[in-house]
Amino acid sequence: MTDPVSGRLTGIGVGPGPAGYLPLAALAALRSADLIYLPRARGADLSVALQCLEGVEFDRSRLCEIEFNMDPDRQVLQEHYAQLGQQLAAQLRAGQQLVYLTIGDALTYSTYGYVLAAVRDLYPQCDCVTLPGITSYAAAAAALEWPLGVGKERTLILPCPEDAATLRAEIESHDIVVLMKVGARLPWVLDLLREMDIAQHCGFARRIGLEGEVLASDLSTLNAAEASGYLAVLLIRKTAQAQRHRPPASLKGSA
Q1: Residue 17: is it exposed, middle or buried by C-beta count within 10 angstroms (0-12/13-18/19+)?
Q2: Residues 6 or more apart in contact with residue 139 via CB below 8 angstroms
Q3: Which residues of 159-194 are buried (b: 16+ CB within 10 A; e: fewer)?
Q4: Mean of pLDDT values over 27-46
Q5: How far, in Å, CA of 153 to CA of 227, rounded?
Q6: What is this structure's pTM?
Q7: Residue 160 gets which letter from DSSP?
Q8: At CA 39, angle to CA 34 and CA 42, rounded to 5?
Q9: Which of the two ends of the chain, N or C, has the fewest CB atoms closer than 10 A to its terminal CB?
């Protein structure tokens, strides 16, 4: 049961990319918030989440920028989010309406998951609402017109493994693999796809709708050095999309 005098924490996924991807419910929450927490990656000059809201009208004086920490040390991470959780819990008890922005869907490989858990630990009865957003792989599939699953195709979504053997096994046991958190592993991932002779069936997207956007529906010649970077996702198909899923040539262009 929520505290009747408490505020509300709303998790919102923005983008990934164009501001037009923001759901109407998220826009309403954004405009009614007392404080809007805006995460920025350590070392980055600008928050990508804010770039995804370019052109959206809301009170920017309510923005509260925080530097998020993705330190590999789990203890450091726990301390970081525990401190942020204490701050948010105190504001919620004071009746404030809070919004936490994140990129893509708020509960798909997102820092918001850590924030929500920290707040719940400190203030179990708080009023928290998470609004679903558009995942990076859904946006990539739409930009590339690349079906994520047809019929009974089996699709796996995973962070990029640390070695080629593990990734090869996952590709061989699924029809489609959505590969997130690729980062500096992109060169050997592309080498593997070419070695397996499936690069021509795969797609790649980085910074969809933003400056530096890269879109490729055939990875046979994708340059890893030029494509590497933050906000990238790979769509892997081990066989060509079956012809039966496409309209007959006689129907193309017909009304």
Answers
A1: buried
A2: 15, 16, 17, 21, 104, 205, 208, 209
A3: ebbeeeeebeeebeebbbbbbbebeebbeebbebbb
A4: 84
A5: 28
A6: 0.84
A7: P
A8: 150
A9: C
Task: Outline where 96-185 has alpha helix (H).
Answer: 111-122, 136-144, 164-172
pLDDT band at residue 40 using 50, 70 and 90 as cut-offs:
confident
Shortest CA distance to 238 belongs to which of 204, 186, 201? 201
pLDDT given for residue 75 in this prediction: 73
pLDDT for res 251 = 47
CA distance 137 to 26: 20
Using omega within 30 degrees of 0 as the cis cutoff, is the peptide bond preceding 18 cis? Answer: no
Residue 219 identity (one-letter amino acid): L
